[in-house]
Amino acid sequence: MRKLKTLLNKLKSADFILVTLSTVACSAMSFVFSVYSKSIVPTFPLGIYSTCLIVQTYMNYAQFGVLNAYNRDYPQALGRKDYDNAAKLKNTAMTFMLLIYLAIFIVFEAWVLIRYHGTIGVDQYKTYYAFGYAMCPVMILLKSFDDMSNATVRMNGKYNKSAIIGFIRTVMALGIGVLGLKAFGYYGLYAMTASSAILGILLFHKDSFKGAKLDFDLSYMKVMILGGLPLLINSLIWTIVQNVDKHVILTFLDTDALGVYSVPTMGFTTMVLVPQTISQVFYIKVSHLYGANQDEKELLDKAGYFTSITAVISGAACLFVFYVMPIFVHYFMPMYTDGTAATQILVIGVAIYSTTMLFGNIFSVLKLNKSLIANSVALCIFNVIFSSALVVFVERSINMVAIGTGLSYALYSLLLIVKLARRFKYSMTKLLINSWVPMIAIVAPGVIFYMMFDNLYLAAVLAMFTALCVCGILLKLRFSK
After folding, report:
1. Are residues 194 and 117 part of one domain?
2. How many domains does the chain have?
3. Cβ contact 57:265 at 8 Å
């Protein structure tokens, strides 16, 4: 009985596990929806959908950093047990976001009506564009409040509840999305995301917004904007970085190629979601730790410990996507087979980067805003140079875009390690051992087996067995310390 109680306590303390499992399940369902959509919607309309998603992504920055300031300062306020300030942050952020996104909704819908007047219902593709653009302010309003709700629940320490609700709402949204695709084709592409956000807001409301009230304190809004603006700029640069490959495709290739590139994008999202979720949970934990102790060395040590766990899981996730995506594309998305090689190339580069996500968050925790922005600008420059140069001078294909993007993320990851080691006089070797080494030890044998054997299934079995052995050894070494 005592052993069972001890085990339950350990599982409870390792709350990131349930969050990660829920994220994997939700990612799998989103993956299924994405695969199903590609069996119904051709590449060109999907390219239109991808273009509208880019617009929606940039529209997110109309909140001027208020949400960024909230996500950084709210957990630190909780760590200091300053609950009045935490409530003030929540109320102000909620009020500002509601005002700004309602204004955007009115302006943007008017623009769509003027821009596509006379073509809606007449030209099919322009109608697709009009519908997609019209959905942008609606989707970003819903998604912003959904993200804030979910983040608030986690920052309040209710990770497991967040995981359970996240799983339930994704199951329901998947059903709605599939029915929407069956009934409406292209228009159904927006159904899963919209319904997931609405369900999230409703289900998270009790633990996130209950008791919250509108607060029109303009001076405090200004403080939050000024505090969050550097983070917003950094995030905006990140968004540009994440869309450089798409901009390169639209500039040098075409919308149809962007539709095909949705397969590598899907692989990117699937691979990075698990380590990203773990990193977000650990980010909250190290924010609490630093808010309570203000100890930089302890912060780096704890970040290294969490990073080693993230690196092992990143390696496993990369190997999974590397082997599974070609199979799924071949059997379920035959219109998108040209995107298979680009997917495999991209996930390897992104896997290297994902091991150092928490290292990047350290700059945010310590409010090193100049370094934070400089890091992101460097990645943006890397991505623009490599992606554009390879497409222009080597080959005009999405494979070159994937190589350039993957290489950029890997160089950025190395830059983070070098800057942390120099700034805090920390061991670079230790940082590499905690991040790159576990991931490479898992992924490298799998890629070698893939290239050596014509039989994909034999290579996958060998890769899985090797990965399990390496994971076991690495985790034993880590937790035996």
Report:
1. yes
2. 2
3. no
Q: What separation in angstroms does the CA of 419 have from each of 59, 143, 296, 423?
A: 31, 34, 15, 6
- pLDDT, averaged across the chain: 79
Q: Which pLDDT does position 457 carry in this prediction?
A: 64
For residue 11, pLDDT beyond 50: no
**With left for phi above 0 and alpha for psi between -120 and 50, is residue 65 left, alpha or beta?**
left
Statement to judge: residues 432 and 464 lie in one domain: yes
Residue 18: pLDDT band by 50, 70, 90 thresholds?
low
Domain that holds residue 350: 230-481
Q: Are residues 235 and 177 in the same domain?
A: no
Q: Is 284 within a domain? A: yes
Q: Which of 262, 269, 253, 238 is nearest to 388 (CA)?
A: 253
Q: What is the CB neighbour count within 10 angstroms for residue 328? A: 21
Assigned domain for 345 exists? yes
Same domain, 134 and 23: yes
- pTM of this prediction? 0.66
Q: Residue 7's pLDDT is what?
A: 44
For the four alpha carbons of 230, 236, 240 and 241, in that order, the dihedral sign comes to: positive
Q: Which two tokens stand for residue 94?
A: 């909620």
Q: Is residue 12 included in any domain, yes or no?
A: yes
Please identify which residue in the block is written with the tokens 């875009």.
Answer: 401
For residue 365, what pLDDT is reported? 72
Residues 153 and 180 reside in one and the same domain: yes
The answer to whether residue 223 is domain-embedded is: no
- Where is the domain boundary, 191, 216, 241? 216
Going by C-alpha positions, the residue among 371, 150, 156, 171 that lies closest to residue 277 is 150
Looking at residue 68, its pLDDT comes to 78
3-state helix, strand, coil in the chain (%, to 5): 90, 0, 10
pLDDT of residue 4: 46
Residue 396 DSSP symbol: S
